[in-house]
Amino acid sequence: MGWTAPPLDPAPDSALTGRFAGCLPGGRFGGPLLAFTAVESTQAVCRRLAEAGAPEGTVVLADYQGAGRGQRGRVWTAPPGSSVLVSCLLRPPLPAGRWPELSTVAAAAVVEAVEAAAGVRARVKSPNDVLVADKKLAGVLAEGVVGPGPFVILGIGINVAQRREEWPHDLVGRAVSLAELAAEVRREALLAAVLGRLAARYDTFLN
Q: Using CA atoms in the order 138, 47, 8, 25, what is the torsion angle rounded to 10 degrees?
């Protein structure tokens, strides 16, 4: 019997979900994919789904986050529609002590995806930041929950369309977007590249 998502508030946006559904690479990342116009945090939504029994490979996407989080409790800020904001549910059959490695796995996948989809060369700043010329282009957040149904929520945020005047004061000179690097790319193409690279690297990690 297939899994059915519980009622969510806010509800997923059907048009947005349809727009990004084709980004799923299949395999361990076979979905479902749920896309939202605005949520407090894709991590929180994905965790609710995980606790309700969602399968590995569930993906939660949002145009806007009101309370997005980065490492060490920092706020992840992005104007609506300007970023790829996504959380993926993993259920790795490995000891919890190895879960932190998933941050590096995901960051490396983002580096590969950004070069493939946007032609931008980036690098990983261990363990979870993706930089271009020492400015943050993307970040990864892995949050694990142990128990009878253990899981990891892997959050990824990539700056796509922000302009300099849109950065909060504390991020000016420290963050960068693909648009500022003269790399115009559709978010669908970028997300498809990220999920495809992540699926491949996750397979390698498990095997």
A: 60
Alpha-helical (H) ranges within the chain are 14-20, 42-51, 101-118, 187-206
Q: In this structure, are residues 159 and 174 in contact, taking their beta carbons and an 8 Å threshold? A: no
Q: State the 10-residue block means of pLDDT for the chain, 207 residues long.
A: 85 97 96 96 96 97 79 65 97 95 96 98 93 96 93 97 88 93 96 98 96
Report how far residue 14's alpha carbon sits from residue 121's, in angstroms, rounded to the nearest whole number. Answer: 34
- The model's pTM is 0.93
String of DSSP letters for 173-189:
TTB--TGGGT----HHH
* Helices 101-118 and 187-206, axial angle in degrees (round to 10): 140
